[in-house]
Design a protein that fits this description.
single chain, alpha+beta, 5-stranded antiparallel beta sheet, about 15% strand
Length: about 350
């Protein structure tokens, strides 16, 4: 696996997240993120190479990093690492070589920074979207792993019973939606035109309100996302979820407190253009196939090159499984019915959202 070289001075705070722990960093390009995590999560990412169908639904991982003592100290103080000022370039952030373990009792972080100086480098799934609308859905009716201490089990059981997790097998953990340029200055809308729904939003949603929760994510007509465009996006996500369900049904794993990260283009004009560009590329591809079929075998035309070769596929939507702090492969134990419960209900509810849209 190629190593992604980063320096301390290249790390900046990454704020385009909808849920999860604080302390996520990014390089200045925004193409990759650096997520502080425990070694177990890093190891699980590496293990997905033996499960390619599953790995296709996870962010591409580029290796592990040691943030270093100084960086860890600044993160613990709720600040960002500062560039090192010297006559020489600061040292590279080096890959982890061994694991540090701790026997200290469990203390809830409350979504704060994880006490670790290890991190994994991942592709930024939101990169390439003009205005990414982001949804984090926490999967599972059971949220604790077998090795969870009693206090943690009790806390997470209580959380599941008080939210949609217990009945639906998932809950909305957070959302960020672009409200359109006209929304600037409105209450709850930041300077970039985004509205954030934090973890408390999803925790307070009742099962009878879950449709409204998703409507607040998909139905963004003020941002140019018409009902027709929203319908197309939801249908794409249904297809993705159906494929993911098939993968889970053929894997033997246990994943606790993992999330599905949904992203789609929130700028209506850019979204419509992405659909149009997809159609153009698909039609061009069909034309090339017909032309190839009509050519005599061995007939070559060096001047006839595919003008779309290497063209970047337009960004419409993507869904990835994230958060593997409590994930493992469990040969002989069958599929993860806890995770599948939530995925199946998402497919059903998304289908109901489509049915409710009175558009062609």
């Amino acid at each position: 696996m190629p190593q992604h070289s980063l320096r301390k001075s290249q790390l900046i705070e990454y704020d385009n997240i909808a849920a999860g722990h604080e302390g996520v960093l990014s390089d200045k390009s925004g193409d990759v993120i650096v997520k502080p995590c425990k070694q177990a999560e890093i190891d699980f990412y590496y293990s997905t190479s033996s499960h390619p169908d599953f790995a296709a639904f996870t962010p591409i991982h580029m290796g592990e990093l040691k943030l270093g003592t100084n960086v860890a100290a600044t993160l613990a103080a709720n600040t960002l690492p500062s560039p090192v000022h010297s006559d020489h370039e600061p040292a590279d952030v080096l890959p982890i070589l061994d694991t540090v373990t701790s026997d200290q009792p469990w203390i809830p972080t409350g979504g704060g920074r994880i006490a670790t100086d290890t991190a994994i480098v991942l592709e930024n799934v939101a990169a390439g979207f003009k205005k990414p609308n982001i949804l984090d859905v926490k999967l599972g009716a059971r949220l604790w792993a077998d090795d969870a201490p009693p206090a943690k089990r009790a806390k997470l059981e209580k959380l599941a019973h008080e939210t949609t997790s217990r009945l639906l097998g998932f809950r909305i953990a957070g959302m960020k939606t672009w409200q359109g340029s006209a929304a600037l200055g409105q209450v709850g809308v930041n300077q970039d035109g985004y509205k954030t729904y934090d973890k408390n939003y999803g925790k307070n949603l009742k099962v009878t309100e879950i449709h409204q929760g998703f409507q607040n994510y998909f139905f963004m007509e003020n941002a140019g996302v018409t009902k027709l465009l929203a319908k197309k996006v939801i249908q794409r996500f249904i297809r993705d979820l159906q494929e993911f369900r098939e993968v889970l049904e053929h894997e033997e794993s246990r994943l606790y407190s993992s999330s599905l990260l949904f992203i789609y283009e929130g700028d209506g004009n850019a979204l419509e253009e992405a659909f149009n560009e997809e159609r153009r590329l698909l039609e061009a591809g069909k034309g090339m196939n017909v032309e190839a079929d009509n050519k005599e075998e061995g007939d070559e035309d060096e001047d006839d090159e595919d003008e779309d070769e290497g063209a970047e596929w337009p960004k419409v939507q993507v869904v990835k499984l994230i958060d593997f702090a409590h994930a493992s492969w469990t040969p002989g134990q069958g599929a993860d019915v806890n995770l599948l419960h939530g995925v199946k209900n998402l497919i059903t509810i998304f289908g109901e959202l489509v049915a409710d849209l009175k558009v062609l």
